Amino acid sequence: MKLTFSIQGGDFTHAGHPSSEVKKVLKQLDIDGKTIKNIVIALYEAEVNVVAHAWMGTVSVDIEENKITIWVTDEGPGIADIELAMQAGFSTASKEVREMGFGAGMGLPNMKKNTDELQIESEVGIGTKVKMVNYFS
Amino acid sequence: MKLKDIAAVLNATISCGTDKLDQEVEMGYSSDLMSDVLTLDTDNLVLLTGMVNLQAIRTAEMADIRAIVFVRNKKANQPMLDLARENGMCILESPYSLFKSSGLLFQAGLKPIY
Questions:
Q1: With 0-12 CB in 10 A as exposed, 13-18 as middle and 19+ as buried, what is A7?
Q2: Cβ-defined contact of B53 to A12 (cutoff 8 Å)
Q3: Which ipTM value was assigned to this complex?
Q4: Domains of chain B listed by start with CATH number
């Protein structure tokens, strides 16, 4: 099963909509609750990153029998140093994003914690591509 | 603790989920930082927060948190309540500060996560 959603940079009102839809689908497929929570938290963190930092983005989801693969691709400023961005507490988030309760430099480490595989590719001034894989237990 | 006991201790208004008041919650977590809430592995908990926006509800949805107390007399708006209702959550609003609310619930036997 394939699902696609678009995300607008700066649109905090709709952030979380794709995660919410994916959660509903996984529940219908009777995937176990802990696995669903891991997946939607990682996706939600990725969505918030796009809304907080990029101009626009796309979420593509591919659900197979034994795993889910999610690509979150954005057009945005990119990440200059991915290793540094993966460190807990490192953040370039604006004051506005922090006022929303995010931007504490926890997003990328938390995505890693909640996924079985995480790949991040980024080009400064072009955008970022995140691939996340979770296996169903 | 039952949600109705939490509401009583915090002198809280129940703005959504009056049918959930008999649900039991074992633990509580207080934070205005949604990033921290998203790192929790526990899910049968009540979230106390002064961060009153749609993303607080979204965060609770993703983290499987079924009850939120908005402190400092802050009120959830209609889109927040609609989203909470859609997800079967209980929303309480307390006039007390985050510190006082947390202290009262701790005293009443609600457990911390860490």
A1: buried
A2: yes
A3: 0.92
A4: 3-109 (3.40.1390.20)
What residues of chain B lie within 8 A of the CB of A33, using their CB? Answer: 64
CB-based contact (8 Å) between A41 and chain B? yes
From first to last of its 137 residues, what are the pLDDT tens digits of chain A? 999 999 999 999 899 999 999 999 999 999 999 999 999 999 999 999 999 999 999 999 999 999 999 999 999 999 999 999 999 999 999 998 998 899 899 999 999 999 999 999 999 999 999 999 999 98
Closest residue in A to B38 (Cα) is A41
Cα(A24)–Cα(A44) distance, integer angstroms: 14
* Alpha-carbon distance B99 to nearest alpha carbon in chain A (angstroms): 18
**CATH superfamily name and code, A2-135:** Histidine kinase-like ATPase, C-terminal domain (3.30.565.10)
**Domain parsing of chain A, residue ranges:** 2-135
